[in-house]
Amino acid sequence: MIIINETEMNGFLLMGFSENRHLQLLHALLFLVMYLMALTSNVIIITITTLDQHLQSPMYYFLKQLSLLDLSFVSVTVPQSIGNSLTGNGYISYGQCMLQVFFFTSLAWAEVAILTVMSYDRYAAICFPLHYELIMDPRKCKRAVVAVWVSGGISGILYTAATLSMTFCRAKVIHQFFCDIPQLLKFSCSNNYLAVIGVAAFMSLIALACFISIAISYIHIFSTVLRIPSAEGRSKVFSTCLPHLFVVSFFLSTGICAYLKPTSDSPSALDLMLSIFYAVIPPTLNPVIYSLKNELLKKAVGKLLLGGYFTGKKANHLCC
């Protein structure tokens, strides 16, 4: 049951998935399980890629950054949604909503950027193995990561500034579990929402350009891999590169679809499902996807769980 009077609130009302109390508790339980899975798996990835000397190549350095982004990304929306479902109170203040918009859009774009960098790292490792250490030296890797976080911050500022310029004059009931920009557009009572549309279109074009560059990188990767005479060598490359391609495709396709799909005044199950697909599922499954066929990661996880010591020779930089 909604316990906030819509006519008296200065913020927004997050409706979530249902007004049924039992379904709200079920939603809270499911989200809690997914959040704990995301928290645990990403903390494990961050820990082992920091401590294990076998996992110090650029590939694992970027994977650590992805896990840090995933951990932050899922923490922006899911804990509050769990709390709202448990208390039956979906109210969120205007300031909290704008902060959520900033961090959500910042981290979402940073994820796109780090996935693009990771694809370039694989391209350099496989297509130019003799020059890989020169192409991806530690200084360049650190600069790439700085660029990822800075570009995310710029994206968040653009989205937040455009959203702050809007005037809201309708009943501010959001049929989502967080302050999603497409939902906020429905409350605008003037044409100033066009700034948000412009920012979304601009960022979507850049995201599309990133996806095209990733696709081109993988075309070169697969053409190189198919020339490898060893079946074991081809299998090793595919086992580490295909998960990355799946993560990129899933995250970008659902995110672009959600932000460019026309909004409707009636609640849509498709909107809720799309938001889960790009806001909750990727941060939860990314560590599992990357670790599934990576023997070094699985051995490092085993060491961590068994209390082993992270020692050994530094990883080969040519690892894909």
Describe this structure in words.
70% of the residues lie in helices and 2% in strands. The chain has eleven helices and three strands. It has helices at residues 21-51, 58-87, 94-127, 132-135, 138-164, 181-184, 194-225, 231-260, 269-279, 281-291, 295-305, and strands at residues 12-14, 91-92, 173-174. It has a three-stranded mixed beta sheet with strand order 2-1-3. The model is unreliable at 1-8 and 312-320 (pLDDT under 50).
SSE order, one letter for each helix or strand = EHHEHHHEHHHHHH
Helix/sheet category: mainly alpha
Shape: globular
Task: Evaluate the radius of gyration.
Answer: 21 Å
In terms of quaternary structure, what is this? single chain
Helix content: over 70%
Furnish the topology, listing elements before pairings.
Blueprint: E1 12-14, H1 21-51, H2 58-87, E2 91-92, H3 94-127, H4 132-135, H5 138-164, E3 173-174, H6 181-184, H7 194-225, H8 231-260, H9 269-279, H10 281-291, H11 295-305
Parallel strand pairs: 1-3
Antiparallel strand pairs: 1-2
Helix pairs in contact: 1-2, 1-10, 1-11, 2-3, 2-10, 3-5, 3-7, 3-8, 5-7, 7-8, 8-9, 8-10
Structure characteristics:
320 residues; 3-stranded mixed β-sheet; 3 strands; 2% strand
Summarize it.
The protein has 320 residues and is mainly alpha-helical.
